[in-house]
Amino acid sequence: MFSSMGNEYISGQQIAQELGCSRQAIWKAMDELRQDGFEIEAIRRKGYRLIGNSDQFSKSELLYQLNTSHIGQVIELYESVSSTQIIAHEKAKDGAKHGTVIMAEEQTSGRGRMTRQWSSPKNTGIWMSTILRPTIHPQEAPPITLVVAVAIAQSIEELTGIIPTIKWPNDILVGSKKIAGILTELQSEMDVIHYMIIGTGINVNTEEFPEELKSIASSLLIETGEKQSRVKLAQLIWEKVEKLLDIYEKHGFAPIKLLWESYVQSIGQEIQARTLQGTYQGIMRGITDKGVLELELSNGRIVPIYSADIEI
Ligand code: BTN
């Protein structure tokens, strides 16, 4: 109703006529929108005007014009949780559908990769865990993290015009600072995936980071100088994840790999890969069709790296 209005007032009568309902129904709908977090000004003889959305997520806004079949069609929204990953695991075990998203305005114990913490201050970012039930073999699961990294990079580019880079396997950076990270957790048996949880943390409107993160983390607000729509960004990500997952399931990783390489940092550069088995130094040659990083050591040997922290 408000999407085509710009910043103007629209009378209750006009809305009622256009939608073919009573003035009373409009009044009730405005009330519900306000409860959902929309700021709507109402002035006698002028009508209603959408001032802006508050800093709260609302399900109706997240679902409005969302162009997906599954991802984001079921949303569970929380004010404050320890970690959306924990809730997503519980919901998945209870049978939550493919594409269900658990979101929170704040996480008190957000989890990062390699048992790190993930800072998730209130109302500033997108802290969400998506439950996926892909119809693939467990061995085909690791590239899904890279699929999601591409979807996030494309969405940030579309929303802000900034071209982010991807640092293998799944950090999204602007310049040298991290904007987003992905934590993938898999519940499977030898032959079957029960479910995957894709945890995504995106620093959208964070104004300032704690001292220890200042030199390594940034937000879209800091990088663009403007507050960004968390709702629009979440919708873009869901739409792109759904599209890219479909490509991956039908055609394998090769088409996604090309997209991933267009955002990736450091191919052909000297890097250090810190793995649980030890640290390797060499030239990053690229990734395989399974998403595994290939590192060329000084003796010319190529080592496959499955999981690591990369230093450039
Ligand atoms: C990383 O880069 O280390 C991954 C960070 C993942 C953070 C997200 S925020 C939503 C979800 N819940 C968590 O506790 N972690 C992930």
UniProtKB/TrEMBL annotation:
Annotated Gene3D superfamilies: 2.30.30.100, Bira Bifunctional Protein, Domain 2, Winged helix-like DNA-binding domain superfamily/Winged helix DNA-binding domain
GO biological process: protein lipoylation; regulation of DNA-templated transcription
GO molecular function: ATP binding; biotin--[biotin carboxyl-carrier protein] ligase activity; DNA binding; transferase activity
UniProt key word Transcription: yes
Top EC group: ligase
A GO CC annotation given for this chain: cytoplasm
EC number: 6.3.4.15
DNA-binding region, residue intervals: 12-31
Keywords tagged on the record: ATP-binding, Biotin, DNA-binding, Ligase, Nucleotide-binding, Repressor, Transcription, Transcription regulation
Catalysed conversion reaction: biotin + L-lysyl-[protein] + ATP = N(6)-biotinyl-L-lysyl-[protein] + AMP + diphosphate + H(+)
Occurrences of domain BPL/LPL catalytic (ranges): 60-249
InterPro entries registered for this protein in UniProt: aa-tRNA-synth_II/BPL/LPL, Bifunct_BirA, Biotin_CoA_COase_ligase, BPL_C, BPL_LPL_catalytic, HTH_11, Transcriptional_repressor_C, WH-like_DNA-bd_sf
Residues bound to biotin: 107, 111-113, 178
One family name in Pfam for this protein: BPL_C
Keyword Transport: no
PROSITE patterns named in the record: BPL_LPL_CATALYTIC (PS51733)
Family statement drawn from the similarity comment of this UniProt entry: Belongs to the biotin--protein ligase family.
Function of the protein: Acts both as a biotin--[acetyl-CoA-carboxylase] ligase and a repressor.
NCBIfam families documented for this protein: birA_ligase (TIGR00121)
Protein name: Bifunctional ligase/repressor BirA
Organism this protein belongs to: Mangrovibacillus cuniculi
Gene name tied to this protein: birA
